[in-house]
Amino acid sequence: MTRNKQLLERDDIDVTRATKARDVMEHEILPGYFYGLEGESLRQFLVTLSKPGEFLAHLHRNLRNDLVKEGNNYPQTEYEPTDFDGVALIGPNPMIPEPDVVIVRVVMPEPERPNLCARMFFCVAGEGYSRRKLYMTEKAEISPEDKKGQFAPPDCVVFECGRGTGSKDREGLELVRFSTGIRVYSGENLELKTRAFEALKGVKSQEELDKSFKNYTEGAQWHLIHALFMNKLG
């Protein structure tokens, strides 16, 4: 990970080049598997993502090697299995009341630049997982003015990725992706949350505080993704 930290100090173009393999993995390969696999193969893919360390580290390593074979010798970021984490929630449970819904959350390494994923949520429902949707919390551009504020602004935007109307073959799968416009935090920052509540104590009602700072916590993002998937947002 030392090389990754050094990359953060370079120009944006260098960081973009060095994270090409990661970008391809997050926005092409994993969505392609998710929407291209069927039946038992899809189920096994989701099981693997619930403990993704070895799988994603190996996949990323292969993509780096592929870039070298294609003539792209720019040094890529490197990740260990411990840089990835995952968990699956299977309904019904307190977070997901529906009995046929599964949401697998994959925590990615800290994004080195905007548009890379902090988290990926693989959502499925129905017989044979006939209904599926992928949500990504992607690193966002933060303006210099926002960085100077009292509280760190949300640093990610939730994107939805779905299957297009093109080929169903995984190698030629058409994917459509768009921003939901919802801003969230890449991680759970309890210190910031505590400071925010102390600063606004007596200014707003508890309900308003909860609404204002709901996306400070990872648990709240579970509820957000579930609501998006079930069309219950709002």
Share of helical residues: 25-40%
Which spans have pLDDT < 50 for at least 5 consecutive residues? Answer: none
Radius of gyration: 19 Å
Query: Would you count the extended β strands for me?
Result: 6
Shape: globular
Question: What letter string, H or E per element, gives the SSE order?
Answer: HHHHHEEEEHEEHHH
Largest sheet: 6 strands, antiparallel
**How would you state the average pLDDT, rounded?**
82
- Continuous helix count: 9
Largest sheet, order of strands side by side? Answer: 1-2-3-4-5-6
Label this structure with key terms.
alpha+beta, 6 strands, 234 residues, 6-stranded antiparallel sheet, 21% strand, single chain
Walkthrough of the structure:
The structure is a single chain. By secondary structure, this protein is an alpha+beta fold. Helices cover 39% and strands 21% of the residues. The chain is built from 9 helices and 6 strands, in the order αααααββββαββααα. The protein has a 6-stranded antiparallel β-sheet, sandwiched between helices. β3 and β4 form a beta hairpin. The chain starts with a helix and ends in a 5-residue tail after the last helix. The mean pLDDT is 82.
Write the layout of secondary structure elements.
Blueprint: H1 2-7, H2 12-18, H3 20-36, H4 39-50, H5 53-69, E1 85-90, E2 101-107, E3 117-125, E4 131-139, H6 144-147, E5 156-163, E6 175-184, H7 190-199, H8 206-212, H9 218-229
Antiparallel strand pairs: 1-2, 2-3, 3-4, 4-5, 5-6
Helix pairs in contact: 3-5
